[in-house]
Amino acid sequence: MSDIQKSLRIRPMTPADVATGMRFKTLAGWNQVEQDWQRFLALSPGGCFVAEIGNEPAGTVVTVTFGGVCGWVAMVLVPPERRRQGIGTAMLRHGIAHLQDSGVDTVKLDATPMGRQVYVPLGFRDEYGLERREGVGQACRWTSVRAMRDSDLTDVIAFDTPRFGVCREDLLRYLYRDSGGLCGVFPGAGSAIQGYVMVRPGSSAFQIGPLVAAHERAGRSLFCWTLDRLAGEPVFFDVPLENPHGTGLAEEFGFSVQRGFTRMYLGGKPCGGLPRQVYATSGPEKG
Q1: Alpha helices of 104-152 — where are they, by DSSP H?
Q2: What is the pLDDT of residue 261?
Q3: Which residues sit opposite 42 in a β-bridge?
Q4: In the CATH hierarchy, which fold is given to the domain comprising 131-280?
Q5: DSSP state at residue 102
Q6: pLDDT average, residue stretch 117-127
Q7: CA angle 95-109-182, nearest 5°?
C-alpha cells in the first residue's frame, strides 16, 4: 500500500459535499447537475462517500441498492492531480464492500473501455454493451403517448420491474418528481401501459431515460414524443446493443455514437431484465 493510500480517509458524503462532486464531474466532462447528487443522497444516505487526504477531497463514489438484491456503484471520480495513485480503485472497493455488507447478491456498473480494464481483475463479468448517443431534439410525429400522471406511477413501476430485472421504485419516483413534466406513457388496454419514458436535465444535454417499451410501436412513439418536446435541445441517451430497434431509431434521427459502455456485474445472477425492450437506460450512474 502506497503512502497516499495509507493517508486516505473515506467518510460518508453529506449535502455539503455536493459542490465537490460537481467540481469533480465537471473536470471529468460528465453531464450531472446538483439535483443528481442530491438524488443520490436521498436514495442512499449511507451509501455515498468522499475520500480525503488531509483536509482535501480526493475522490467520490456513490452506491444505490434496488430491491435489496442488486446494488449499483457509480460516480467514481478523482481529480486529475490525484489520478493514478490508487484512489479510484480504493473508492470502488469501498463502494463494493458497502453494497456487499448491505446484503445484495449482485453489484453492477456501466464501464467505459478504460474502466473495464480495472473492473475485470476485480471479478466483474460482461453482461451486454451500450452506446451513448448524442444529437438534437427535433419536430417529430408520434401517436398515442400522453403525459405521465401521479396515478400512473404504480403501473410504471410494475411495468418496469421485469424489464429492468429488479424493482427500482424509489428511483423512478424521484426521476418523475425531478423531470419537470418530461415524462410520458404509452397506454395499453384497460389501465395497463405498454411503455414509458422519463427525461432529466443535464449540464450539457437533456438525458432521455429510462425509456422502456413492450413493442416497437410504443418504443418509436415514446422516442418521437420526447424528441418533439426537446426540439432544438442537445440530447443524450444510452441504448443497449441488445435492442436493435433502439439503435436503429438513433441512426434514423441522426444521433451519433459518443462513447461505448459495457454493463458488468459482480456476484450472482446479473438481474438482467429484458434489455431488448429498453430503448434508453437511466444512465451509467443509475442503471
Answers
A1: 113-119
A2: 94
A3: none
A4: Aminopeptidase (3.40.630)
A5: T
A6: 93
A7: 110
Does this model's pTM top 0.85?
Answer: yes
Give the distance from CA 281 to its chain's centroid: 6
What grid cell was written down for 26?
465537471
Cα gap 77→111, rounded to integer Å:
13
Q: Establish whether the linkage from the previous residue to 210 is cis, with ω within 30° of 0.
A: yes
pLDDT tens readout for residues 210-266: 999 999 999 999 999 999 999 999 999 999 999 999 999 999 999 999 999 999 999
| φ and ψ of 205, to 5 deg | -160, 160
CATH 3.40.630.30 describes domain 3-104: yes
- How many helices and strands in the chain, by DSSP H and E? 9, 13
Contact 71, 63 (CB under 8 A): yes
Domain ranges in the chain are 3-104, 131-280
pLDDT in tens, 167-207: 999 999 999 999 989 999 999 877 689 999 999 999 999 99
**Predicted pLDDT at 1:** 54
> How many CB atoms are closer than 10 A to CB 153?
18
Contact 128, 206 (CB under 8 A): no
| Cell numbers given for 273 | 431484465
Cα angle vertex 286, ends 270, 26, to 5°? 135
Query: Strand 125-136 vs strand 234-240: parallel, antiparallel, or unpaired?
Result: antiparallel
Alpha helices in the chain (DSSP H): 3-6, 18-28, 34-43, 87-101, 113-119, 153-164, 169-178, 216-229, 244-252
User: Cα angle vertex 165, ends 97, 64, to 5°?
Assistant: 35
Which residues, including other chains, have CB under 8 Å from residue 16's CB and lie 6 or more apart? none
Give helix 34-43 / helix 18-28 axis angle, nearest 10°.
Answer: 120
Q: Given this chain, do its domains 3-104 and 131-280 carry the same CATH topology?
A: yes
- Nearest Cα neighbor of 172 from 188, 191, 193 is 193
